[in-house]
Amino acid sequence: MFPPISHKEHVLSLYKKVLESTKEAKTIATHITALGKIRAKTEDNILLGKIDKAIGSLQDAHAKVKKGKSTPTCLDNATDQAVKNLIEHCKKAVSSDKPEWQVIAECNGWAPKK
């Protein structure tokens, strides 16, 4: 049996999973699927919005690819602004080392008492 994972570890792992996924060479369709799976696990509305925008941009790019000609690519060096915004949000969340509830609360104007 594996030891239970703390909520904080679980939450940070979602942001880390986004970053890890963007570093992998995958087809656009596979990136869309991977982001969709991560999306289903988060309560961070900002992350949800950024994933949705990134998926929308990826779907547009995928629609322009000739059938059967999708080349695996890494998203971590993408030029698309929606993908860049998603990656930046995840990097900030991981570097802050805060639980998801705190990231969400601070994005909504809450601040800890001093």
Keywords:
114 residues, mainly alpha, 5 helices, 0% strand
Description:
With 114 residues, this protein is an all-alpha fold. The protein has one domain (13-107). It has five helices and no strands. The protein has helices at residues 7-23, 28-39, 45-64, 81-96, 100-107. Mean pLDDT is 84; it is low at 1-11.
Low-confidence stretches: 1-11
What is the helix/strand order?
HHHHH
Distance between the termini: 41 Å
Strand percentage:
under 5%
Instruction: Please summarize the sheet with the most strands.
Output: none
The 3D shape can be described as elongated
| Number of helical stretches of at least 4 residues | 5
How many runs of DSSP E, i.e. beta strands?
A: 0
Mean pLDDT over the full residue set: 84
Helix content: 55-70%
Counting helices, strands and paired strands, the structural category is mainly alpha
What integer value in Å does the Rg equal?
15 Å
How many discrete domains? Answer: 1
Quick recap:
With 114 residues, this protein is mostly helical. It has helices spanning 7-23, 28-39, 45-64, 81-96, 100-107.
Question: Which helices and strands, and how do they pair?
Answer:
Layout: H1 7-23, H2 28-39, H3 45-64, H4 81-96, H5 100-107
Helix pairs in contact: 1-2, 1-4, 2-3, 3-4
